[in-house]
Amino acid sequence: MNLFIGHTITRNKDGFMLVLYLNPQHTEFADELSGIGKRYVEQTIKDYIVSNFPNLKIKSVNIMLGSLLIATLPFSSINAAADTTSSHQLQLEQFYEYTVKSGDSLFKIANEFETTIARLMSINGLSGDLIYVGQQLKVPSPQPNTYLVRAGDTLFIIANQFGLTVHQLKTYNELDNDMIYVGQILRIPIKKLIETVNRLPDGVFHVGSKGESVRGIQKGLNTFGYDLEDDGIYGPITQSVIFDFQSQYNNLTNDGVYGPNTKRYLQNALLTDHIVAPNPASTLVLINKKHSLPSDYIPDNLVVPNVSFPFEEYNPKKLMRQDAAWAIEQLFQKADQDNISLYALSGYRSYNRQKAIFGSNVKAHGMAAANQTSAKPGESEHQTGLAMDLTSPSVNFQLSQYFGQTREGSWLRQNAPDFGFIIRYPIGKEEITGYQYEPWHIRYVGTPAALDISHNNLTLEEYLGVH
Any idea of the CA torsion for 201, 207, 208, 209, to the nearest 10 degrees? Predict the structure, then answer.
């Protein structure tokens, strides 16, 4: 359970003040901000800052319980106090042994278990970041929507526990056989997805069919990315959507009729379409066609950065997360110094707004074509608040691949990493990112990661070791 449920940031001339809101279920720490309890809180605060604001100059931290101020701590004291991990602190958290595999790094393991490299080094007593295959590391308990296989478990037992069939559990985890092992982490679909998959009816349905079974089909198609009115009526629009879905699979008859084969393919498509990110607020969260944001996720601390826009009126697409907004302000200041004319065009985009955009593209061009140029709802980086589309007068304030050949586009590619941004969809990496070259789309990942990604010509997928 998270110690903190949210935060706000205030900037002054000396740096930033971070306000952390204590989880009401952890109120024991409100009475114990001394001794061991205080050291635990200090370590957690340090990890929170390293994970979410690695490039902000935090001067002090206020801890709030609702509207009540519990404590004010200088960040310098937090750094000093959090350098060591007490044995009692380890008892407050649950860990299990993780065996290092080929291709693992501390960064990859930290990202998988929603922790930090510093935290892994601290709890394992490591003096450096070198690890070796077969090494046993203590890691935090698995992420939400995952299950740690224990002695005596079988796929049937686990599937039954979560209301799944064995086939669904294997499909969701891309398992080729029934073999599992103690310590293995299995992903579990969120409850809403399980309900949608299980609601897909048996039988044959076509134009003229009506009822709750048809509504279940429509809800399943909408979860996959279509935009149907789930009215329980199998009319020409539902037929055309079924036809479009069937056209994406060579082994399906494209007749617009829902039957057993279409049900099987739709179930599998829903279970393999994407993984819901367990750490959506992380600066390094991976969002692409395989990894999505929860539908109800809205970033904390959305603000309008003090940069140039080609329009004056307020629009939600001006918003960015506070840490990314601060970084893009520094980027634009550098651009001004170098006589580079940049404009911010489109930042934050809500799940519902992305749903409307994608649904419109599907209606106009079909699912396959729409998914090449736009993101399904939940699969857009704009929902993180960490992305911004940039433009310039040289491309008439449009989003154009030609921007990459302009003076502004070249300058952005060379300078963005110094301020924590990457060109998220670079040329030549389309098969990895899943999207066409977009020289205008920058994503905030923090300066260390951005410099590493840029210097090694990587995508975020390659940097994280996840595709």
Answer: 0
**Rounded CA gap, 447 and 351, in Å?**
27
**Secondary structure, 3-state, the chain:** CCCEEEEEEEEECCEEEEEEEECHHHHHHHCCCCHHHHHHHHHHHHHHHHHHCCCCCEEEEEEEECCEEEEEEEHHHHHHHCCCCCHHHHHHCCEEEEECCCCCCHHHHHHHCCCCHHHHHHHHCCCCCCCCCCCEEEEECCCCCEEECCCCCCHHHHHHHCCCCHHHHHHHHCCCCCCCCCCCEEECCCHHHHHHHHHCCCCCECCCCECHHHHHHHHHHHHHCCCCCCCCECCHHHHHHHHHHHCCCCCCCCCCCECHHHHHHHHHHHHHCCEECCCCCCCCCCCCCCEECCCCCCCCCEECCCCCCCCCCCCHHHCEEHHHHHHHHHHHHHHHHCCCCCEEEECCCCHHHHHHHHHHHHHHHCHHHHHHHCCCCCCCHHHHCCEEEEECHHHCCCCCHHHHHCHHHHHHHHHHHHHCEEEEECCCCHHHHCCCCEEEEEEECCHHHHHHHHHCCCCHHHHHCCC
Instruction: Give residue 260's pLDDT band: very low, low, confident or very high (50, 70, 90).
Output: very high
Provide the residue type at 62 as one letter.
Answer: N
In the predicted structure, residue 356 carries a pLDDT above the cut 90: no
pLDDT in tens, 411-457: 999 999 999 999 999 999 999 998 889 999 999 999 888 999 999 99
pLDDT at 338 over 90: yes
The catalytic residues are 438
Identity of residue 440 = W
In tens, the pLDDT along 71-124 reads 777 766 555 444 444 333 333 345 667 788 888 888 888 776 767 777 788 778
What pLDDT is attached to residue 13? Answer: 62
How many Cβ atoms from other residues are within 10 Å of residue 296's Cβ? Answer: 6
User: Mind listing the domains of the chain with CATH numbers?
Assistant: 4-90 (no CATH), 93-192 (3.10.350.10), 194-272 (1.10.101.10), 282-464 (3.30.1380.10)
Question: Does residue 324 carry a pLDDT above 90?
Answer: yes
The average confidence (pLDDT) of the chain is: 84
